Amino acid sequence: MTFVLLAISLIIFYLTRAVLPPTTAAAPYITPRMNDDMKLNVAVSLGLATPSCPSWEAFSTSRAGCVMPVWGQYVGWLRNVLQGNWGYTLLPGISGTETTWYVFASRFPYTAELAIAGALLTIIIGIPLGIISATHNNKWPDHVSRIISIGGYSMPTFWVGLLLQLLFVLYIRINGLGLLPSNGVLDASCAICVANPGQISMFTGVPILDSLLSGNLPYSWDAMIALFLPTVTLALTSIGALTRIVRSSMMEVLRQDYILLARSKGLRERVVIYRHALKNALLPAMTISGLIVASLLGGVVVIELIFSLPGVGNAALVASQVLDLNFLELYVLVTAAIIVIVNLIVDLAYAKLDPRIRY
Amino acid sequence: MNQLPTKTADPEEVLRIRELTVTFHTYAGDVKALDGVELSLHKREILGVVGESGCGKSVTALTITGLLPPNAEIVCGEALLNDVNLLKMKSSEMRLARLKDIAIVFQDPMTYMNPVMTIGSQITEILIENPEVFREVVVTSRLQEIDQLEKSGLISHKLQQERSHLKQVLSHGNLSKSKFRRLGQLYVLSYLRMVRLPEPERVLKMYPFELSGGMRQRAVIAMALIRKPKLLLADEITTALDVTVQAQILQLLMQLREQIDSSVVLITHDLAVVAEVCDRVAVMYAGNVVEVAEVNELFQNPLHPYTQGLLASIPRPDSAAVELKSIEGSVPDLISPPSGCRFHPRCRRAMDRCSASKPRPFETQPGHLVSCFLYGE
Amino acid sequence: MRYMRATTDRSRRGSDIRYALHLLRGNPIVLAGTIISIASLIVGLLSGLIVDPNSWKHIDLNLRLCWNNLAIDWHIRNVFVCSGNSYPLGTDAFGRDLLKMMILAIPLDVQIALEVVASAVVIGIAVGGFAAYAGGKIDEVILRVTDVFLSIPSILLAIVLLVIVGRSLTVLTFAVLVTWWPTYVRLVRSQVLSEKEKPYVETLRVLGAGGSRILFGHVIPNSIYPVLVQATMDIGSVILTIAALTFIGFAPSPLIPELGNLANQGIRYFFTAPWLIVFPGLTIFIISLGFNLLGDGVRDIFDPRLRR
Questions:
Q1: Whether ipTM exceeds 0.90
Q2: Tens digit of pLDDT for each residue in C86-104?
Q3: Distance from CA of A290 to the nearest CA of B (A)
């Protein structure tokens, strides 16, 4: 696991520092008011420029002997990171430039909220859909479910999200307000929203959880309403993969001999499917959990953009435009870490659930 | 001209299959797997059904249990289990029939058991899923057990209490779920002992892959017997086992015969198994029953050319002949089978009429039926 | 020494086709998918003939964001009505006919998708087959490398590459390819690993066939079916990824006729000119759907486990 993360960090680091101009890495620490000498001092203190570098200009044009070797930079960066220091970011925090970690951490709960809601919805709809598809193979429930899952799988995320917004914000209106809010953030201008929900206290940073914990139910209602469309958009595009694998896995299991025996024992069909078939079918389906999580975390980026959610995906897009390397590095590594951890958990769960895999 | 009785005049007859015709619709064409199968089974007898692979033995078994795949069509025919036509039952009735009346044991217990469930749970679930059906049986069995313990002098106050409680349950009928579960387990254990499984309590908690082939097969047999079925179908149950284990399982069948009240259909391709265990034998070829007789009669006096060929092709260690005899030709393609008698292309004594029409079963002696124009219509 | 080719003989191929037709007959959805995919390919090939390939460079700001197709009423106040020609799908932010831009965009997307998928398949076969056959340390290393790439969502990796290397169509293609090849390496590897164990391989070895001959002449052709299925469906997925990337804003230039790029203009004008998002998105959806349905059908044909 650590190998993967180290490898990713190395690749990204090397690409960013070696390919982009050396001034990019120094950007969050430089203000326009600094003169060139001050800028050079900053660069040296960051470990980007060698002490023997004559001028800022020499540094920015990468004159030989002016830029620290990338490997050295990496080691320094790694040392910092392992102590929790991710440097500064160009992105606005609450008050001007903040540490990368702080900006990331304050935005992360919004992304997590969306991703988890999307994952839950995907599972709740995807698994039953796959089961129905398998048990009614080639009859109309199968066809309908295949249309939904393959259709959802083929839809561009931005298209679905924006169409839903068109529908529920622009076209379906009650009393002059759209049915649902157009933002993922609290934007109390929607027909079924509560107008002034009041305040909540911060526990986790996740609006829905915090409002529930604060006992402010109208606020949590608003938060859930606001999250509704983004979640549906996210789930719609992920359901396809899950349904497809549940379907094919279930169909394979239903062909097995032990299903025939289970039926021959006089068990009700429902018991046969849910007790005998499902457990065996879900085991292989679990193996793609990592891929599903990856696609969820990728989809979150576009959704945060079109729904103006203050999450890390949105921030990453801004970071990519202003070339904020610190933020991008942190973002990629956290995403990769999540995927790796999910894969690990799935592997452990699989070993636990399948009695054939022991010792 | 002898004709088969059209109604079950014989009170001893448990199963009567008449004119059973089954076709499978595949992308390659229609496979006419069964072509008018005629079969009868008497109470408490062991009927062997022999034939080559693909002759329709398993299909017959699957048809009468209602377990055919969706692309199968029962074109015509009936299967009467004590005068009730199994083929015309609704699926819910069929499920109950599979639960109480017909049990089927398959060939390879490794693939036929759920790999992620323990043996115990796979057997006890039959009981637990159908408490109304098994309540009485389970309680009665436990009462008998307690009586046995009393006879051997192992009675205790606790057991006596249990006995009176159970007697109450029998008359008033209120058994808690957990008690039922426990009684069910004891009931299953009694059957595991009956099939001679060592350490039955341990076996309950084991997974299929932890047992040997022979033990698994015994467990599956217990799974079948526990329902006290009227009809037990054993589809090639010894084929996947090695010879010594095979012998053990057959011996078990013979021993169980006294204890159980079921009629057994033993499907196999191995004539030796048939000779050892069965009372009567039915020989099948390409979807038809070609000959039925008592086992000794069949081996001493085979009438149908196919049966004769089969028996002649068994290698004899004492014969001086070097070459193995075989039936010339090969098994017919069931998508476009031969017309008339399906064996006629391979039959040395085929006549013109054999390709024109199909022979019907003819009784040459009481109990010996042949479907061949050589002997009658 | 001649030996029999230990793969499908003609009768199996014949029955494959028969089986395929049987499935198509019973499966109108797959048929629809096949038709759509073929249609997109045809439109892609012929687009240069239907629309002037250079028309995307002609900007007319007087005609920007207007709509004059009376068939659809957007119920938006102040929709700008175009003068002059009829624009069935309206105009974009540069005053160009949206329909024409979309027709020009289709071959671009399909072409990039085909390039990416074809390259990924080739790399997958080469590296995956090699890894499976070589085994041991080499296999382990290659597997770890794919692990690394599969731990980053494809969009993110592509974004990082585009940020670093710059925006051009080549980089775009390459960035998407980089995120796709690990899947194929893994797929081919696992297929080859299971084929390797089959008895006919040992037979071939005994008959004197060399390693690479076995690998490329027999094992890989027999492992190819799941790869084909994956590749067909991936054409759709790649198109989605490219569109998403250009939608976010990573197209080389805002003018380039590419479906996601056209939609990108629509973000700003969403509530005043929704057609900019609706129609390019719809096209992406239809094309992707076509290839996904086709891939699903191909899978049903070739998956031995689902066979009758």
A1: no
A2: 777 888 878 788 888 888 8
A3: 24
